[in-house]
Amino acid sequence: QVLLKESGGGLAQSGRSLRLSCVASGSIFSFNSMGWYRQAPGKERDLVAKITNDGSTTYADSVKGRFTISRDKERNTVYLQVNTLKPEDTAVYYCYVNVITLGAVAGVDDRSEFWGQGTLVTVSE
Length: 125
Description:
Elements: E1 2-7, E2 10-13, E3 18-26, E4 28-39, E5 45-52, E6 57-59, E7 67-72, E8 77-82, E9 91-101, H1 102-106, E10 113-115, E11 119-124
Parallel strand pairs: 2-11
Antiparallel strand pairs: 1-3, 3-8, 4-5, 4-9, 5-6, 7-8, 9-10, 9-11
């Protein structure tokens, strides 16, 4: 299986910054992409940012210029630097990975998407 562990969430005032981290572990053969989604109370879960294996990045329009995604391949870690926070950024942030698992290589498991449990970011003001 593949496990994701997020950290770095918390309470921040508008205009401040946080750095979210996500470490992936388990039966991973290779990564296709890593990223972050968020879900605010009463709203759908939406893509925030992702980074593909070749380093290409994608951002939601609402966070462009404020959030930066990066990765450390050797540590199987993805980061989200969140700057100039706004109250509307308040949400549970979920790490995700799209991977080729050892099970997929062996032809016994076709799962590719895995999710963390989430880390709460609360922005005041």
